[in-house]
């Protein structure tokens, strides 16, 4: 009689662990772990934004507006695309944020 009860308890624990992990990965306030490793939305902390934006805007001739908008976007999305130009698909939040005229807001 004890063996079926032990099997039942172990099965219930395994199911509980499986469902608790699934909820953690899908919580809306946190980016999936894969983005944290690769860069991407939610991969930065707000205090990392100035240095990342300095890198992103290092080759532009319009440094002041680039830094202003990059920091604004980074503080909202917690992401700065790699490189100094392009790669905006790495940060969908940045890529989808537009001005009133429909132009991209983030550099």
Description:
The chain has 107 residues and is mainly α. The chain has a domain at 39-107. The protein contains five helices and no strands. The protein is elongated and about 80 Å long.
Q: So what's the overall shape?
A: elongated
- What does the average pLDDT come to? 75
Oligomeric state of shown chains: single chain
Q: Unreliable stretches, pLDDT < 50, 5 or more residues?
A: 21-38
- The fraction of residues assigned to DSSP E strands is under 5%
Tell me the structural class: mainly alpha
Distance between the termini: 67 Å
The H-and-E topology, N to C, reads as HHHHH
Radius of gyration: 21 Å
Question: Helical proportion?
Answer: 40-55%
InterPro entries: GASA (IPR003854)
Organism: Camelina sativa (False flax)
Protein name: Gibberellin-regulated protein 12-like
Family: Belongs to the GASA family.
Key features of this structure:
elongated; 0% strand; gibberellin signaling pathway; signal
Quick take:
With 107 residues, the chain is mainly α. The chain contains five helices and no strands.
Write the layout of secondary structure elements.
Layout: H1 2-25, H2 33-38, H3 49-56, H4 63-77, H5 92-96
Organism: Camelina sativa (False flax)
Keywords: Gibberellin signaling pathway, Signal
Protein name: Gibberellin-regulated protein 12-like
